[in-house]
Amino acid sequence: MTQPQRYRWLTVGDHYTYVARPGKGTDARRGERCEVVTVPRSGRGPGNARVVFADGHVAIVPAGVLRKIHAP
Question: Which domain holds residue 64?
Fold first, then answer.
């Protein structure tokens, strides 16, 4: 069995909350849940991840604007 792809705290297939600061990124998406589709390659420039939101919108966002959703 293969391990899921990881980059720092991001794991492909896990869900995160998009928390970009006001004026940065897409303000309308702030606080929305998204799923990581691809993670950046280690050692390659800025760490941008591809995510898909619940409505199917796909975006490329910096890894630093994603916060892990912890199960209750």
Answer: 6-68
Question: Which of 12, 16, 70 is CA-nearest to residue 40?
Answer: 12
User: Per residue of the chain (72 residues), what is the pLDDT tens digit?
Assistant: 677 788 888 999 999 999 998 888 888 899 999 999 999 887 766 789 999 999 999 999 998 999 998 765
Residue 29, domain member (yes or no) = yes
Number of domain units in the chain: 1
The single residue listed with the structure tokens 């209750």 is 72
Specify the length of the chain in residues: 72
Residue at 53 is within a domain: yes
